[in-house]
Amino acid sequence: MDRREKPGHGERQTMANSEKVFHSGNELGCQSESSWQDFVSMGIVRESAAVRAVPTFDLEAELMDELRGPIVGVDEAGRGPWAGPVVVAAVILNPDRIPEGLNDSKVLTAEAREDRYAEIMATSCVSIVIGHVRRIDRDNILQATMWGMRTAYRGLQTPAAMTLIDGNIVPKRFPCKASALVGGDGRSVSIAAASIVAKVTRDRLMVKLAKRYRRYGWESNKGYGTPEHARAIKTHGVCTHHRRSFSPIELALQLLNNVQAEISV
Prior knowledge:
- The structure is a single chain.
- This protein has helices at about 45-50, 60-65, 110-125, 135-140, 140-155, 190-210, 220, 225-235, 245-265; strands at about 20, 70-75, 85-90, 125-130, 160-165, 180.
- By secondary structure, the chain is of the alpha/beta class.
- It has two domains: about 10-210, Ribonuclease H-like superfamily/Ribonuclease H (Nucleotidyltransferase, domain 5, 2-Layer Sandwich), CATH 3.30.420.10; about 220-265.
- A six-stranded mixed β-sheet has the order 1-4-3-2-5-6, with helices on both faces.
- A hairpin with an 8-residue loop joins β2 and β3 (about 85-90).
- The radius of gyration is 20 Å and the shape is elongated.
C-alpha cells in the first residue's frame, strides 16, 4: 500500500461527513484496576486474555501532567473490508469517569462493545467520522483514513495537548501534536475507547446496509472478504457500496465485463 500522503480533497467540507457527539451522563465510578479473573465478566474473548495486557490510563496521565491539557485517543474501524465505509473515532476520556473494562475492540464480545460504547458516549467527549466508499475509491483507503483522523480530531472542538493514534502513522497536517502507538488500542484506554466507538458505529452501519443488500451477508461479515461474501459477489455481482479500488472487487468487475463481452459477441 502506498504510505505516502497526497493532499486530501474536500478538507473544507469536513463537517458534511462527521458526526460530533458531546455527552455528560450520570455519575460513574473511576476505572478500577483489572484482574484476569474478571476477564469473562469484562467481555474479553477468552483466547485473547492470556496474550494481551489490559490498556491503562498511565500514558495519558503522564502526558497530562507534562503538557497540562487533555489527551485524545484516535482509532479506526474498517480499513480492510471489501465493502462499506471506514469509520474513525476520536475520544477524550474524563479522567474521573473512565468506564471500566475498556480494551481493544477486537478482543471484546459484541455485547461488551455495546455496553462500553454506551458508557463512553455518556461520559466522554467523542467525535465520529464516516469515510464513505466514494472517498476510499477516490483517495485510496490510507488517505481516506488519514482524512478521517484529522476530521475526527477537529470535530471534538476541544484543543488537546496530545493525540495518541493507533498504528504507526501520524497523518500529515494533523491539527495538534500527535504520536502513533503500534498496538495502541491494547496500551491506552483512550485509544481503546476510540476503537470501540469506531467498531460499534461501523458494525451498526453494516447491519443497516444488510437490510437493503441482503445477498452479501453483511450483517455477519461486516463487508470483510469472507468465503460467503466472495460467493455472493460471484453470484450476484457487486453493488454501489463495494470498494472498486480494492483488488478483489476490481477483479470481480473485470470478470463480469469479460462475461458480458463474450455474451455480446
